[in-house]
C-alpha cells in the first residue's frame, strides 16, 4: 500500500504589540488526479474509492441467477460480488430458463441462446407449476397412423412449426398455442380437436386444423343419416372456449364440416373456416343444443353442405352472434347457402357481409322459423335456383320466422344484386331479395339497389304487393307474402271488445266473400287495414296482406244491388264506393261512403255480413281504430 499523503501546514507567528493573537492562516496542497486503480485510494479525485479501476475485473449482471451474464449490463470491479458473473453469454437475463446450456423447447423463445437452433418440429407441454415436458414423440404420427393425445392435466401445450399428424382430446383447462403456423392433420380419422368434458376453460390459438372427419353424434334432424360432426373442431361439452387466429379447412362431417358445437360458450376471433364439407347440414359450422357462439373478425368461405346451411347452420336453442365477418361463396343443394336458421334463439349479424352464396332457396339466408337480425350488413350477389336469392322465409315448427334489417341513415343495410334463375331463366313469381312465404320481415333504413343496374335484385325485391317499392333506402314490414310501408290498424266494433271487421275474397266462404265480424286475432291478416288517403276528404280501406290488392267497397242492403248490397272486398279502383270518410262519434268513429253519401254508414251486426245502412247511433255502426305499428306484426317475442 502507498503511504498516506500528508498535508503540510506552515504556521507563521507574528507579534503585534497591543493586538490580540490572530488564527494562523492555512494552505492545502491540491489532489492531483491519476488513473483509478485497486488500491483503496481516491486516485482520480472524485471522492470515490476504486470505482471503474483500470486494473479491475470486467463482470456482468446476472439478474435471473442462472450463472450467465447480461452483455448489455457490464461493470468493472476490483473483486467479484453477488449478482455479477465473469461471462456475457445470457440472451435473456429476465428468465432463469433461458441460457446457453438450456434445452430448446417449443415456446417461441430462443431457450439456448443459439439462433441457429430452431424450434420447428418440437411440441412442449407445461403444467400448472411451470414444469415443461417434451411431448414431441407423443405427437409424431404418420398420415396413415395418426397420433392421439389426451390433455387431462391443466397447463399449456405448444406446437411449433411443422405438420403434426395427430388428434387432440381436451378434458382439462389447457391453453393450446402454435408457433410458426403449425398444421394439425387429423388424417381423416376423426375430429382434429375434441372438447367432450363439461366445466373446462380452454383456448386454441395460431394453428391450422385440416382433414378432420367428425367425432361425436350431434343434433337430431331425423334425416336418417349419421350425425358425426365437427371435422376440425368438435365441442360436445359445456365448455368456455376461445379460438383465436385459427384456420379450419379441408375437413368434413355429416354435419358441421369445419366446426360443430352442441353446448358451451365459444368465441371465435380471426378464424378462417374454409373449404369444408358437410354431408347434411352446416358445411362450415353446425351449432345446436343450448350453445352460444360468437364469430368476430372471421370468415366462412367456400364451404358446402349436402342439405342446409352451406356456411352456417343453427338449430335447437343455439344463439349465434356474428360481428365484422364475411360469409361468402358457400353453397348447398337445398336451403341457406350462407346461413340456415332452425333455432328458437335469434341469430344476429352485425357489420358483416353475406355474399356470393348459392342454394336452391335462400341463397344468402334461409329461415324455417327462428329469427335473424341483420345490422349494417350487406347481403349481396347471392343466387338461388328457385326462390329467395337474398333471404327465404318459410314456416316451421318454431315461432316466426322473423328477419329484421337494421341500418342507419348514413350506412343502410344493403340487399344488392341477388338473383333467382331456374335453368337459366328468371320467373316473375320469384324474388331476388326477400321472399316472405311466412313470417315477418322488418326493414329500417335498408337499401335495395338501383333499378336496371347490377345492384338491382332480380327479378324483384319482395314477394307480394311490395314489388317496386324496394329500389331505394326505406323502412317497411312484410307479413307473409305482402309488404307495406304504412302503419296498419284493426276496426274493432263497439258492440264487443272481441270482434273485428274481417275482409274476405268475393265468392268465398264465409258469408259469400262479404266483410263480416269475427273474433279479433292478431295472427289473422285479413283483419288488418291500411288507411290510404285518396284526397283531402276520402281514403281507401285496403287489406295490405291480401295478394290480390283488394279494397273495402260499400253498397246498400237492397235487393238486386251488386253483391247483395253488402260491404265486400273488391279490386282496388277509383270507384266512389271504395272511398271512405271517417266521422267522429262519441263512441269512436263512423265510416261513410262517398258514393252513398254522408248519411249512410258501414254497419256490421253480429252474425251477419257488413253492409251500408242509414247512419244511426247504433253500436253496430261505431268503430274503434286500433292503430298498430307495422314493425310489431306479429310481436317480436323472440327478442324479448
Rg calc: 41 Å
- Widest sheet: strand ordering: 20-23-27-31-35-39-43-40-36-32-28-24
The main pleated sheet reads as: 12 strands, parallel, barrel
Structural class: mainly beta
How much helical structure, as a percent, in the residues? under 10%
Instruction: Name the average pLDDT.
Output: 83
Low-pLDDT runs: 1-18, 464-473, 507-511, 630-640
What portion of residues belong to β-strands? Answer: 35-45%
Count, helices:
0
Distance between the termini: 92 Å
DSSP strand count:
57
- What is the molecular shape? elongated
List the helices and strands and how they pair.
Layout: E1 57-61, E2 74-77, E3 84-85, E4 123-127, E5 132-134, E6 147-151, E7 155-160, E8 163-170, E9 174-179, E10 183-185, E11 193-195, E12 201-205, E13 208-210, E14 216-217, E15 228-229, E16 233-235, E17 240-249, E18 252-253, E19 259-261, E20 265-274, E21 277-278, E22 285-287, E23 292-296, E24 299-301, E25 304-305, E26 312-316, E27 319-323, E28 326-328, E29 331-332, E30 339-343, E31 347-350, E32 353-355, E33 358-361, E34 365-368, E35 371-375, E36 378-380, E37 383-387, E38 391-394, E39 402-406, E40 413-416, E41 419-420, E42 434-436, E43 440-447, E44 473-479, E45 482-484, E46 488-493, E47 499-502, E48 516-519, E49 530-533, E50 539-542, E51 550-553, E52 568-571, E53 580-585, E54 588-593, E55 597-603, E56 611-614, E57 623-628
Parallel strand pairs: 6-8, 7-9, 8-10, 8-11, 9-12, 10-13, 11-16, 12-17, 13-17, 16-19, 17-20, 18-21, 19-22, 20-23, 20-24, 21-25, 22-26, 23-27, 24-28, 25-29, 26-30, 27-31, 28-32, 30-34, 31-35, 32-36, 33-37, 34-38, 35-39, 36-40, 37-41, 38-42, 39-43, 40-43
Antiparallel strand pairs: 1-2, 1-3, 4-5, 4-7, 14-15, 43-44, 44-45, 46-57, 47-48, 49-50, 51-52, 53-54, 54-55, 55-56
